Amino acid sequence: MFRQQKEANVDQFTEQQQTRSAAGKSHQTRIAFVQSGWHKDIVDRCRDAFVAAMTDGGVDRQSIDLYEVPGAFEIPLLAKRLAKSGRYDAIVASGLVVDGGIYRHEFVADAVISGLMQIQLETDVPVLSAVLTPQHFHEHDTHREFFTSHFDVKGREAAAACLAVTSASYAQPVRS
């Protein structure tokens, strides 16, 4: 039963991709990028690198909508609303969840990542994550420089994944 449902979902997704591909220029890939406002200067680097890599990959800048929520915990709700809107081919989330000493940041990170996974499973809209939770982060130059650079890399990686999951060949069998 599960296998039949899984195959039906893959077939449905493949059909959607083929319809988009057959539409050619009539379908323009639309992407939503949702980021948290905490550590904005660092998370902005992910967004900027993502947008640059997507445009380098042939996606029109006007096809990428940027959203900001107060913190990482708010990302899944907006991502779900965007996915359910039917407007987007993929959604990318970015945030930095750090241990502020008040609560266990692992709980927040787990809730965010689990929420993002659930959204894509329920809506069939790919939801990609560049939400990171470092083991150690302190407000000093060394960590800020490292994570600023790291979020630049994560933005490019998210763009590569986004280009892959929105391509017409995604979910096609691999031929040897």
Automatic annotation (TrEMBL):
The active site is at R104 (proton donor). It catalyses: (2S)-2-hydroxy-3-oxobutyl phosphate + 5-amino-6-(D-ribitylamino)uracil = 6,7-dimethyl-8-(1-D-ribityl)lumazine + phosphate + 2 H2O + H(+). GO terms for molecular function: 6,7-dimethyl-8-ribityllumazine synthase activity. Pathway: Cofactor biosynthesis; riboflavin biosynthesis; riboflavin from 2-hydroxy-3-oxobutyl phosphate and 5-amino-6-(D-ribitylamino)uracil: step 1/2. It comes from the Bacteria. The keyword Transferase applies. 5-amino-6-(D-ribitylamino)uracil binds at W38, A72, F73, E74, L96, V97, V98, S129. Residues 11-21 have a biased composition (Polar residues). Its EC number is 2.5.1.78. It holds the Pfam family DMRL_synthase. GO terms for cellular component: cytosol; riboflavin synthase complex. (2S)-2-hydroxy-3-oxobutyl phosphate binds at H143. Keywords: Riboflavin biosynthesis, Transferase. Residues 1-26 are annotated as: Disordered. GO terms for biological process: riboflavin biosynthetic process. Catalyzes the formation of 6,7-dimethyl-8-ribityllumazine by condensation of 5-amino-6-(D-ribitylamino)uracil with 3,4-dihydroxy-2-butanone 4-phosphate. This is the penultimate step in the biosynthesis of riboflavin. Belongs to the DMRL synthase family. HAMAP family: Lumazine_synth. This is 6,7-dimethyl-8-ribityllumazine synthase. It comes from Microvirga alba.
